[in-house]
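Section 3.1: Structural characterization of target chains.
Under the original work plan, the team committed to producing a structural model for every single-chain target entering the pipeline before any wet-lab resources were allocated. The record below documents one such target. The sequence was received from the expression subgroup and is listed exactly as submitted; it comprises 126 residues.
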Amino acid sequence: MLTPEYMKQVVDQYLAAINDGDMQAVMTIYADGAAVEDPAGTEPKRGDDILQFYTNAFAGGAKVELTGPVRLSAKAAAFPFRAEINQEGGQILVVEVIDIFEFNPDGKVIRMTAHFGPANVTVRNA
């Protein structure tokens, strides 16, 4: 059974794995057949495409941190966070995002949607 503590732990694990640059650890939260929409509304990535997406997105390194509390329901966790992603040329892409994890009964993420748009993305110098 999913508990609020367990779902919060998965969110923390996800953010820590990104900060550590460990995309294989990111993959451990996902169920077989999971779908990732990043950003929400785009074609879902599945299987090996999820790992490739994360590897490409955070290739230069990233720092992510919660910007508010994790919101939990029976089978989902929504959490606001800021991602600071290193870009070539010394710039940092700053994305204010809300991710939503939907969990299966085994406690794995079956669907992730990332909610942000152009107004939530800025670039700054390092």
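The CA atoms of residues 19 and 63 lie 5 Å apart.
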